[in-house]
Structures are given as C-alpha cells and as structure tokens.
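Translate sequence into structure tokens.
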Amino acid sequence: MFKKILSLSLALLMIVGCLAVFASCSGKGKFKAALICLHGDNSTYDKNFIDAFKTACENKGLSKKQYSIVVDVDEKEVCYDKAAQFADDGYDIVFADSFGHEPFMLKAAQEFPEVQFCHATGTQAHSANVANYHNAFASIYEGRYLAGVAAGLKLLETYDTDNDGVITDAQAKIGYVGAWPYAEVVSGYTSFFLGVRSIVANATMEVKYTNSWYDETAEKQTALALIEDGCTLISQHADSMGAPTACDEKGIPNVSYNGSTNKNTFVIASKINWVPYFEYAIDCAMNGKKIDADWTGTIGTDSVQITALGSAAAANTQAKLDEVKAELVAGTRKVFDCSKFTVTGAKADTSKFSKAAYITMDADGHLTAYLADVDDDGSYTGETNVIKTEGGITYFAESALRSAPYFDIIIDGISIK
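Result follows.
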C-alpha cells in the first residue's frame, strides 16, 4: 500500500511540475514586443535600432512570431495609430525610435495603461508621471568625443609634417553635417569637436543643417558645400550615406555615425548600442518589474560604442582611443570639462533664441553655471543648473538629470552656416 501511495504521489508531482512548466512556457509564448521606426534599414539610424531589437528579442527567447517591426512611420498621428494597433493586438511592450514620435507614444500610453511604451530620445517621461511611459537614451557624446580624438589624430597625420603637433588654422578647419538644431545634435557635434580639440588645439568647425533626419541628396550636397568652404574633414549627425559618399568622391576623411561605411576615406564611427536597453525593458515587461522612467546607457555599460578603425585612420589611433576611453569610464576625463571650452559668443548672442540669459561664466569665458531646459514643457526655458564639480573637474553634466541631451550652447570655435 505504501508503495502505491508513494507512486501516486510521485505521479501527481510530475503532473503538477509539467503543468507549471507548461504554464510558464505558455505565458512566455504569449509575450509580444513591437518596434516603430521612422525609416527602414536604408537609414543607418533606424537600421541600428532594427538590428539591436532583433538581437535583443532573440536573446530573450522570443520567436519571430512574438515580435514585430514597422518602418517608415512618420512623426505624425500615424505613429499613435500604429502604437494603438499593437496594443489592441495584445502586444505587451511597444518601442519607438524617433524624437518626433514622442507625443503620439505618450498619447497611446495614456490610453492603454496595461501596455508598456518605451520611446528613444524623448524628454517627457521623467516629468509626465505616466507609469507605463518610458524614455531611453545613452551618453553617445562619449562615443562622439572618442571619434573626435581619432579625427584630430588624422588631421595631424595628414598635415603635421614637422611632427611638432601644430597645423595651420586652414588645415584645422573641419565640417559637420547636422540634421536639426536640436540639443541632441548640438550636444553631439560639440562633443565631437571637443574630442578633435583635445588633439588639435586650434581646430574650428563649421556646421550646416539639412533640416531632415534622412535626406541623402541634401546630406551629400551639404558635405560638398562644407568641403568647398575649406573643411578638411567631415563628420555628421544625419542618417544616410550622403556625406560619406561626398567625402569619398573628394578624398576627404570622414567620421560617420551608426556604422562603418567601407569607403577609403572612412576613419571611424560611433553609435548607441541599443541591445542592453531592449533586453532590460523586455525582461522587466516579461517579469512584471518596473521599467525606469528615464534610462541612460553609458560607455561603461557598452551602450555607447565606436567601430573598428577604417583604412583612413592614423597610425597608433587605437592606443590613444583605449587610453581616453579608460579615462572616461573612470571619470578622470569629462567630455564637457568647462576648462576646455569658452562661451563668449553664446553670451554675446542677442537673437530671439539666445541662451545668454542662462549663462554665467568667469572672466576667461568658461561656464560656471548654466540653466538648462531639463524639464521640457515646450517653453524652451532653462530652469536647472547643470554645472557640477567632481574630482576637481567642473563640467556640464550632460544626460545626468534626464536621458535625452540638453547641451544646446554654441561654444566658441563652432560656426553655424
């Protein structure tokens, strides 16, 4: 009798165990994630998101039937329509990748509180107080700074024939193709420029905007115009191959964004690695854990990356990059170290959108205080001092109070054309 009871008990335990496993697998099988993209994978920016999303979904055990990607979704009401449709279709988490998607993602989050909505590059989550709406970004300024270091070394290799670390002002003039005059773009090209200046002290930079995130023709024409203006190296915050193509045609070194270009003039590129965030957010949604309202990845968490060096990179560049990266990770070097740049031009600006009222500087033009527009309410009003001192370094604390960049000052040495 005892043996029969024991056998029956073991059988019941096996059945319960199998049911538990089945329930677990069944629950996981129902989980669904979606990504909304501004463009398709012809855009280097969107392709970076698409590739990372696929990798993260697969790493978290999701089958291809459990995740969806929609592309060419404008920064208009159609974004809300797509997000709402995913919610109606039983998706548990929905991501969007472009700045202008934010109001539509926030609207969807308010309407579907049981679904998690995650938006990259946005500014509203930390103040909107909508529990299922989240922003994410990364300290890409660290990657752009490293790319600037590589660019400065390329300038020296090309023009410093005396090996004294000095080149002429004309040789030290570089160009930048920017998408829009937003803080995200300004922060990016400023950090790149400061990286160049850490190697070439007399570097200057001319910036031209295309007023589009993705316009291959405009980006190529803008790069050509910068080269015509005498720029000896070109970088970009724009999402096509327009600028790299122009550089290749003219034999001008190029620092790209979001991936290698395989062109002879390619030096290096930086990018945000979105895999860590996608995995983190998906894991939270799958397991009922809270997702941070405002998440910031760093170079130390591998959320910010630089590519392998291109054929145009200067000799010994990698050793210097390794040295500087270690300092950034340790905090002994700050990208926006206030002792490394001045803002006299910004202070003197009397235009309608001048930042002069928010700037306090010392006698030499270095920032001592700056009221940044961290709590973005649409009024473009600075309200939060973001100048900090740590380890003896006074610096602009970019992305410390909000994941999305808020560095929006045009520093001395940069001209907007």
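Note: The chain has three domains: 1-29, 30-138+274-301, 140-273+302-416.
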